[in-house]
Amino acid sequence: MTEKGGQCHETGQRAVPALGLQTRIRQLESRLDNNALVQEGESPAEDPMELLRELEEDYAQLEELIARINRTNSTTEAGEGEDPL
What we know:
Elements: H1 3-36, H2 48-75
Helix pairs in contact: 1-2
């Protein structure tokens, strides 16, 4: 595999965890929404503050992962006749 191909493969490998993080973020957002509002006198099934903390950590991880992917993409050159996307 060429260096360019290797960088593409490396970017692809980083995209997989990003998809997992995005799925986890959507799930946490839903769980937070479900636990943020409860009827008077009832307790939420999960601690909304803990869910929020987890969500903020995942946002930070995703932001860092996307920044690394973007840095890799900005230094990768497409070969002649290759689609840059």
